[in-house]
Amino acid sequence: MINKIHSLGGYIHEYQKSIANPQAFWAQQGESFFWRKRWENVIDWNFDEPSIKWYVNGKLNITENIFERNLYTHGDQEAIIWEPNNPQDESRVLTYAELFSEVNKFANTLRRLGVGKGDRVAIYMPMVPELAIALLACARIGAIHSVVFAGFSANALQERINDASAKVLLTADGGFRGDKVTPLKQIADEALESCSTIETVVVLKRTNSPIEMIVGRDIWWHKAVDGQSDVCPAEIMDSEDPLFILYTSGSTGKPKGIVHTVGGYMVYSAYTFTNVFQYHAGDVYFCTADIGWITGHSYIVYGPLLTGAKTLMFEGVPTWPDAGRFWDIVNKYQVNQFYTAPTAIRALLAKGNEFLENKKLASLKVLGTVGEPINEEAWHWYHDHVGMSQCPIVDTWWQTETGGIMISPLAGITPTKPSFATLPLPGIQPVIVSNEGKELSGNSVEGNLCIKFPWPGMARTIWGDHERFRTTYFSSYSKMYFTGDGVKRDEDGYYRILGRVDDVINVSGHRLGTAEIENAINEHPLVNESAVVGYPHAIKGQGIYAFVVCGELSTGGEEGIRRSIMQGVTKIIGPIARPDLVQLVPGLPKTRSGKIMRRILRKVAEGDASNLGDISTLLDEDVVDQIIEGALVDVKV
Ligand code: WTA
User: Fold this and answer.
1) Residue range(s) defining the domain that contains residue 565
2) Cα 397 to averaged position of ligand 1 atoms, centre (Å)
3) Against a cut of 0.85, is the pTM above it?
4) Domain annotation covers residue 508
5) I want to staple 94 with a disulfide (CB 3.0 to 4.6 A). Which of 80, 346, 357, 519 is the partner?
6) Inside any domain, residue 211
7) pLDDT tens readout for residues 426-437
8) Ligand 1 pocket: which of 302, 375, 476, 497 to mutate (most atoms within 8 A of CB)
9) 216 phi and psi, to 5 degrees?
10) pLDDT, tens digit, for every residue of 255-299?
């Protein structure tokens, strides 16, 4: 089994080993898996091209490591515990043996539909067990899954399907979320109006919403699976064959299809899951993320299932039927490890402690957070009220691109500090770099967070655009992976993540590129140009503030335009990208060469324009005064 760390001394020892001899360290972690053919080299890499290969020429299938490797020991154990949206409804539990059988049946279904190794399968589904089954069925036959979060719009889904040239789309008639139903099939139909590569759409019946089935293209999930064998030989994959594509936002252009490969991702997701959460056999682990994001991939599906854990999957939302829902789930299943996002903690904190009172939370042993910096107030509330001062908090820093947790306490082992992700995991070599590219060594320094040595879970490329992969991550600082985050290392050598230093904003733990939102706003017929920045938001962490220049006002007046801009963004990207504030401005602050001075807009949005810094290159100072005057937040001048 994976090398599990039990003490701080053990961590220090493992960390040192991993730096002194990464090959030996990662070979040892790789040993605990089942390989059809052992690897030749542990790593082949350079950060110039970049070219990153782990467990080179190893052959395996990740699902054999979830199922065949473990069936003798825990076939009858619970694998997925599923809690539906409506607590009154039946819940569902799948043992490892049952999950294996479902995965095989669906893998055979996909094969029958002509899906083979390397084909892309787009997945646009609610949080039901079939979603996890779909991922694993793809992995079983070597197809590459590309999950699109079920809150994205038709337009966003279309863009992702086309970028990956997916052959099959898996969706559902609808999805339940609190008291709402998302018409997933209808949205998918709209997306598919111009997706030439999709041959088949498999539709799961979930909400019984009225939908249209297109003859020759659409088939019902239950009919497609009916009669399929529950035995499906695994496709033998190379370590470096892609396992999945997951789209994420960057500071420029369209979303990037981040590619993760089979071997390294397997070892890394399992290693980090075991050590960070200190999972013990029999524990019930609950991660509240959606499988549409990387957290769901690595820490609902792959990491836990590779280690034989019981993973809880929740279909609904934290505030329905009321803000005590998470705690009811914790009690119902006696959850031991609970992993969520700071935005959810802040939202529940704001609802008051009455939703926590009388809840039985004594089963909890470990609390986790991910996705954005956690402020101290939220950290303390989580620690004192949810964890009753008994549970360590693991503040886990990582990214879609890193595949797994990078900087984090090990639960109950690493002494924590509120708002600090603390120390790097074994194998991870973070460095802090100044804007000029100088490595800042020693403690009490602040700068850009880079990683100077590869780790098995790291992304290998951007689907269809390796050059973009190089320029985005490996060109800012020579021979280093640049994360896009700012970081501070304190006097104890502990890391505190400060947030993005690029034009990416983090809204309720969701990553959004400001350029992407601007493009959506600019589609509006009355908009000439726009600039989007983040601003501090009590619940969401960051809110979206759009400064928009319009040619003329329509009959609806200013309010009408604002509303239609917000609706436009919802339609083009999805509700998560909808601006919170839209200010109509006479112009944007620009330099003489025509570049937008976002720094000024950020200051206004943050409510402090008392020190705008150097504005000597500003073309028109009046514009700034007008923006401040019309600001939608109080601005100190
Ligand atoms: C931010 C989510 C502070 C960070 C797994 C990163 C965090 C981005 C933390 C990646 C944390 C994630 N503390 N900030 N513990 N975890 N972030 O790709 O800015 O959705 O670059 O992956 O979230 O977001 P992504």
Assistant:
1) 504-629
2) 6
3) yes
4) yes
5) 80
6) no
7) 999 999 999 999
8) 497
9) 90, -20
10) 999 999 999 999 999 999 999 999 999 999 999 999 999 999 999
